[in-house]
Amino acid sequence: MATIDIQGVSKGYGSRRVHADLNLSVQHGECFTLLGPSGCGKTVLLRLVAGFEQPESGSIRINGSPVSDPAAGINIPPDQRDLGVVFQDYAVWPHMTVLENVAYPLKLAKKQRREMEERALEAVAMVGMKGLEKRLPSELSGGQQQRVALARALVAGPSLMLLDEPLTNLDANLREEMRFEIKELQRKLGITVFYVTHDQEIALAISDRLAIMDGQGRVRQIGSPQDIFERPADVFVFNFMGIANFIPVRRVGDDWLVGQGDQRVPVGRPDGAGELYTVGCRPSDVRIAASGPGLRGVVRRASFLGAMMDYQVEVDGVIMRVALETHEAIAGGLMFKAGDPCALNFHDLLWFDSVSAEDTGGA
Ligand SMILES: Nc1ncnc2c1ncn2[C@@H]1O[C@H](COP(=O)(O)OP(=O)(O)O)[C@@H](O)[C@H]1O
Ligand SMILES: [Mg+2]
User: Fold this and answer.
1) I need a surface site. Which of 18, 142, 172, 210 has the fewest CB within 10 A?
2) What is residue 231's DSSP assignment?
């Protein structure tokens, strides 16, 4: 079994509280991602799990055994936690060859020379670097150096891997390639991965489950990528996962009206009994027409983005983003310019309790 259990963990520096009573569990064999804005405490949490930092209170268990528990006086050192760790700035040693870098953890563990070499060669091959064993890091690309860091984390055969934004320093193409490779390795080796990142796309692509953390270190939602994207728990999650329209609505009698105007919201109604709500939708979930039923609005800005048209439409003082494919816009006679009247309809609307700027902030 390879699991992580974080229970009631608190950690701060001086007056800055980073984590307060945090709970998270990573299950055996899964790729679990912690996704949150920069500065929310992702690296601090990984350092706590790895044992480079101690929590002030709470406990961390790895594979069911406590590794950090200040109340019980437990603090297992990093090299006895059965973990592989890769940090953002991969930190391979410049004066060592690829093979020496990868073998280093085994050398520290005082393994026999022969075993050391065999296992290091195997780990190098695993990350697709066969034939480059004798190179120095200065003779490698950024992506190759990150592979060396990955091989070094895997060489001791850990059941758990901690990855801290390992792809951030790579260019876009390489990032996409490497995220597939990490996922493949995880499946092939059957290891458990705890991955932290601020990058929504990576998190959606590689995770079995993910947790969304806000700027204050609070976990807002845990679920599958599809859960998070299609059924966001709150406005913060919805906003953090992509461009979002937030439309304030108010109850007047049995009707739900947009902004301060007199037009009815065309789809759905809230479950609750409040007077004020916010409805959310993605720009691609809005359908725009020149006339007809729906919310009457005026195009305030029209942007041609190549494959997409991006409109800002004002409806009774509320600005909404609308996106559609350019070929669809041309075929449908939907090439608007600023000042054109239009009508909006919606594929889907999510109803949230009325929100303040603070609820959506931090993203
Ligand atoms: N050693 C430290 N001393 C003081 N403050 C720290 C230390 N490490 C992290 N912090 C603070 O903790 C917060 C979270 O940092 P971090 O975990 O690095 O965020 P991120 O989610 O971007 O990885 C930040 O406000 C950071 O300044
Ligand atoms: Mg970080």
Assistant:
1) 172
2) S
Alpha carbon distance 76, 66 (integer Å): 8
Q: Say if residue 108's pLDDT is above 90.
A: no
Q: What is the pLDDT of residues 42-52, one digit of tens each?
A: 999 999 999 99
Q: What is the per-residue pLDDT for 140?
A: 92
Six-digit token pair at 205? 């692509």
d(C-alpha 226, C-alpha 223), whole Å: 8
Report CA(42)–ligand 1 centroid distance (Å): 8
One-letter amino acid at 289 equals: A
User: Amino acid identity of 132?
Assistant: L
- Check pocket membership of 303 for ligand 1, CB cut-off 6 A: no
Site to probe by mutation for ligand 1, drawn from 19, 43, 194, 198 as the one with most ligand atoms within 8 Å of Cβ, is 43
CA atoms within 13 A on the CB side of 273: 0
| CATH number of the CATH domain containing 315 | 2.40.50.100
Residue 248 gets the label, from left (phi > 0), alpha (psi -120 to 50) or beta, of beta
CB-based contact 339:298 (threshold 8 Å)? yes
If you search the block for the tokens 């709500």, which residue do you land on? 277
Higher pLDDT, 42 or 90: 42
Burial class (CB in 10 A: 0-12, 13-18, 19+), 16: exposed
Q: How far apart are CA 158 and CA 150, in angstroms?
A: 12
pLDDT at site 174: 82
Q: How far is the CA of 43 from the centre of ligand 1 (A)?
A: 7
pTM: 0.87
CA distance 292 to 70: 66
Which DSSP letter does residue 265 get?
P
Which of 200, 235, 270 represents a domain boundary (last residue)? 235
Structure tokens belonging to residue 39: 């500065």
Which of 216, 235, 254 terminates a domain? The answer is 235
Residues 6 or more apart whose Cβ sits within 8 Å of residue 276: 248, 249, 250, 251, 354
